[in-house]
Amino acid sequence: MRTILFDPANGAAGDMIIGALLDAGADEPLVTRAMASVVGEPVITKVKRRGITATYIQTRAGVGTRTLKEVLDCVSMAEAPDKAKEMAERVFHRIHDAEARVHGDHPHFHEVGADDAIADVVGACTALLSLSPDRISVLPVPLGMGTINSAHGKMPVPAPATAYILQDSGLTVRPSLEETGELTTPTGAALLAEFLSSFGEEAPADGTITSIGYGAGTRDPPDRPNILRVMMLESGGPGVWVDILETNIDDADGEVIAATIARLHREGARDASASPLIMKKGRPGHLIRVICRQEDSERLALILAEELGTLGVRCIPSVHRFIADRRFIRVRLSEGDEIGVKIGSWKGKILTVKAEFDAVVAAAVRQGRPIREVKWEAEEAARKELTRWS
Q: Whole-structure pTM over 0.70, yes or no?
């Protein structure tokens, strides 16, 4: 069982959440591509916050406002997984509903309607899902104290919209006893609320810490490290328990099967596949197999019945699934391009070193070189980097 534990002791904002998840091992090439499709490629750097090294995200977006429809249109066009975009849309609905309660019927977002906020939300949802969590836990969220300047003038901390988001979230909050300014932004509160709603349990789960990440905020106050911490916990042995769903079909065409597999992935399946087989009377058919969390079995079996018309779905329950540890590093090629490389390991032993293919193709085109040469160079650079670390 993989739990992601958020520790927002010093607050939460969209950029801090992305930075912490990337620092903990989220898929950096995937996240970068998703954010770049909204506002341009983000700048990802390592910074110090009161002596603690953390990952800092800069989106370089301009200031502006958008309607909810305009925001959702931007999200829908992002180059991100469908499930991440659906989660991002729910985040913005949370923010919109909170702003409506504060201001009444209003046509535009303000601070959270700018391109950087859209990129932050899409990037954070993509980063979270790339880590394949089974549960989310969130420690108490600080409210902050003092005032901030907003589009509506000077406001008390937490901002009114943030307070409503937290009220509806199920998150535990804690008051601040001294002047801190804004610690938790509307975007940060809405992201944590959606993560908890989608995956989880607020109370921390027992487990072994496998990874820790720190995300930096923009400010660097003298009295506290402006960081958000994420910890990855593994429990229940070196893997997770899953169910396997299977059904045989001989009367669905390829387009329907493809669409069904895509929907199963969007609805939370760990994996879904179709294999050709020969059925009774020599008819060609397909075996549809779905790997899923145990709590999702019944819901995904119903999707199989709805989409494929099958009248029976076999369930192989409680199968133990071993999962290799995954992390991502970036390497610089001889021609200057940076490529993300996925590292797979088991109990400290490196199993796979695989360059992010889309980035390899783009670099090969820019450099006028064969794809396989660029791929080899990136993976070899990653192996050398890993050797220096060991």
A: no
